[in-house]
Amino acid sequence: MPTTQKRQRSISKSNIHDGTSSTTESTKQIRIIKTQSRLRMLVEHLPNGRKSLHLKGMDTLVIPSELYELTDLDILDITPESKSGMNYTLSRVPTDFRLLINLKCLHLDNNNIVSFPNEIGELYHLEILTASNNHLTTLPNQIRQLQNLQSCHLSNNKIEEMPLCLCYLSKSLLFLDLSYNYLRQLPSSIHNLKQLRTLLLLGNHIKILPDAICQLLKLETLWLGDNKLKELPKNFSQLKHLDWHYHCELSSNFEGNPLENPPLNVCRKGMEAIEEYLKKTQK
Which superfamily, per CATH, for 40-182? Predict the structure, then answer.
């Protein structure tokens, strides 16, 4: 083959290669733009001015990196929908979530999450965190940095000890759900949660309540059903704001406990009966 012809074929191959590279890069850029555009189209603009995004299992198998460009996002929901028939669930919370600096609500229920990255503590504006029905065993200490967190949902996980980092949210935390975990006791530092209104502890293995729980004076709802409690703290009647409606769903639920002091039939009658019983036994 003549040298000129070889050179032309070489140049031709080179041009084809360069063209393919250019096309691939262009395709990648188009994909990124399309993904960004699709994500922005999925963002719901709520009446209160907040911006919400729900990434359904049917929409994505991998969290697109373009998500982290949506720094003005207020609400992110990555809760798989059973109706979708998809098996995809999130097993790892990306560290890049920290880039969503304005996030106020993060919903991660019904996934396979085993742990949170330390970087979750950088979501300083977070007000609501829901991560029920996962495989969490604890929380990173950095959670204590979420000083705007008002509502934390952690039911149906594998938590054996109440994460102490939650007790540092003394000025903000109003609602805490640790139902259906493996708790055996509560830390004495729970008394720091002075603003707490609702504490749900159904279906654990709690044998005794610390006296410190009686210092949660703003507590309105306390569910303790299906535990292993035999007695209540002597100052339990200090929880004056427990909203006890006999004909409604009780705000304080003791069913499923082997209570002896006071017995279950007394607890069912409400706080006045409990207070009277405890006074008699303390004389």
Answer: Ribonuclease Inhibitor (3.80.10.10)
